[in-house]
């Protein structure tokens, strides 16, 4: 996995999309330039059983068409079954060591909030870390209190080459703060799911990254 893949990491499940069809939102986001996708079917009235698996597969197929990595949140068995590109886990999920054993060389993303969690993630070969919530979020009901950018800045100084994605309450008005703090990218749900103009939102969010700045020069 390259650090560039984290530039604009879109996370979505059916409960995040109220008006449009979830697959239409994903396709529009892919057309508009998201660089990574996480299937996160969590929250109220979520799909289960075969419908859950079918929806995951449809998301995966779309990601493959646009050559964007397809990452599964939490569900390691599903990721292995579908041959996903990777898995994202947090501190309440299976231990990092166990997940690495189950997924082999697939991409492994781990949420970290402290030095201890970071060291464990690195010890077992996390490919990237997720740091958040930076700002308040309404998309994760059990989210920790907003952390701001201090920990993110510390981790960047400590590990200049580590792929880091920031998450939690990020939008077109505040995303610049996390790129400035050293994040390679941002992970968002509501900024895209609730956008009235997905294409414009995505180009604005990406414009804060150094990758887009390099292209413009
Ligand atoms: C990119 C990214 N970062 C953090 C998270 C949060 O993971 P986790 O703490 O396991 O919470 P859930 O998403 O499982 O509710 C994430 N999913 N993605
Ligand atoms: C899935 C998730 N994880 C978080 C964390 O802090 O670990 S915050 C979050 C929700 C992000 O959604 P939005 O972009 O709508 O704030
Ligand atoms: Mg999790």
UniProtKB/TrEMBL annotation:
Mg(2+) binds at residues 74, 93. Pathway: Cofactor biosynthesis; thiamine diphosphate biosynthesis; thiamine phosphate from 4-amino-2-methyl-5-diphosphomethylpyrimidine and 4-methyl-5-(2-phosphoethyl)-thiazole: step 1/1. Residues 8-192 form the Thiamine phosphate synthase/TenI domain. One of its GO terms (molecular function) is thiamine-phosphate diphosphorylase activity. Its cofactor is Mg(2+). Condenses 4-methyl-5-(beta-hydroxyethyl)thiazole monophosphate (THZ-P) and 2-methyl-4-amino-5-hydroxymethyl pyrimidine pyrophosphate (HMP-PP) to form thiamine monophosphate (TMP). This is Thiamine-phosphate synthase. It comes from Lysinibacillus xylanilyticus.
């Amino acid at each position: 996995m390259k650090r560039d893949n984290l530039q604009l990491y879109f996370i979505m499940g059916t409960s995040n999309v109220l008006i449009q069809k979830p697959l239409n939102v994903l396709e529009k986001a892919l057309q508009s330039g998201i660089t990574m996708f996480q299937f996160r079917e969590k929250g109220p009235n979520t799909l289960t059983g075969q419908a859950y698996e079918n929806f995951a597969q449809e998301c995966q197929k779309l990601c493959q068409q646009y050559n964007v990595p397809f990452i599964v949140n939490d569900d390691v068995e599903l990721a292995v079954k579908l041959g996903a590109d990777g898995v994202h886990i947090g501190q309440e999920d299976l231990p990092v060591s166990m997940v690495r054993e189950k997924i082999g060389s697939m991409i492994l993303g781990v949420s970290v909030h402290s030095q201890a969690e970071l060291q464990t993630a690195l010890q077992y070969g996390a490919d990237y870390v997720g740091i958040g919530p930076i700002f308040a979020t309404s998309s994760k009901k059990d989210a920790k209190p907003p952390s701001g950018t201090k920990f993110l800045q510390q981790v960047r100084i400590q590990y200049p080459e580590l792929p880091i994605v920031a998450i939690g309450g990020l939008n077109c008005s505040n995303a610049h703060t996390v790129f400035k703090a050293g994040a390679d990218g941002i992970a968002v749900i509501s900024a895209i799911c609730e956008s009235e103009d997905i294409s414009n939102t995505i180009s604005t969010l990406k414009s804060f990254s150094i990758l887009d700045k390099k292209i413009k020069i």
